Amino acid sequence: MAHLTGPQIEKAAELVGTPFYAYSAPALRARAKTLRDGIPEAGFVYSLKANPNMSIVRCLSQAGIGAEVCSLFELEVAIAAGVCPSQIIFVGPAKAPQDIRRAVTVGLKAIIAESIEELNLIDIIASDCRVVQPVGLRINPAFHSMGAKLSMSGKPTQFGIDADDIDAALTVLADCDHLTLGGLHVYMGTRILNHEVVAENTRNILALADDIIAKLDKPLDFVDIGGGYGVPYDAGETALDFDKLAASVNAQAKTWKARHPGTKVIIELGRYMTAEAGVFVSQVRYIKTSKGVKFAICDGGTNLHGAAGTSAGFRRNFPMSAVTPRTSETRDWNISGPLCTPTDIFGNKVAMTDLQAGDLLRVESSGAYGLTASPLKFLSFATPAEVMIDGDDIVQIRAVETLDQHLAQFTPQTLTADQRTPVAEEQ
User: How far is CA 380 from CA 42, 62, 377, 403, in A?
Assistant: First the structure.
């Protein structure tokens, strides 16, 4: 799991208060090393959507991992974290013109075009900037993944260009004087726990890449085969067999690269890189029994850990426990947060030791899609602190939102016709 001890978490709670997220720097570095050592035939990029904290991005970048970004803010975080622009790809189905302009200006590895219309827009902006911009084509293939908990390709979708339209896209691309085709991108789905599904996805994607490359007059720089590696969240799920996955993917990538020696294979991962490196810590505020059911009501719930609630698209208990158990005996508890909604239950009938007000609870596998999947503005509770723990060092990597900061965003401002919001300002 996160390799964070009870004393480390208790010390962090004293320093920043609860609720908060804590991440293990050694666990992040270890996962990056496992991936790079296990599949040396591929390169890796980190999907910031899983957890965009700058310190996490920096830690993974220092371990040799690139970045995949889906917004202007994620792009700026990656750059500020020290990721070389040549190691960043920019995906997303609705990139704004100013976002594309910024991406062109900094010289990314590739902007991943999700439609033919977007290709034309990137070309116009690249022409205006007087550069030739590498692009990747995201492809929505005819095949789909049966083993993904959330399927994202092989069906009608806003993501990518349908495989049947690739010839049309290549024709348009040939007429774009300020674009060059850098690579292909296919992402089948997420939360995959079966290594055979990953192996099959890899085979299908690389075969599709073979067919497209045969239509081209020059080699590609990369083929992004997606990722979607899952982590188990409850006792009913079996962990992904990474050794078997790595053996298959590595062998396939090696054989494929022998046919295309100038083309890199890229794997993008978010959840698998960070989920098990983080814990969410909440403090029990009240204990009550309602109609025979024991409740521990905490200062942070699904408002700060949406992935543990209904917003993640699945309803299950994350692994959780008391930071300092009082006894070895357990009973069923419902663990709830502070929200005025019955859906704020992030632990349903969890077997846990006897609890009292003031106890700290740790929710494991919380390093991905915790804050990013959370309804943070519901009831306007403060954004929590985040800390990075590395041995005896505890570093705050996000400060708690203050009341002044919260109120400042509501300051009235008279706008003029030619005034743009800060989000739209060109960098």
Answer: 43, 35, 5, 10
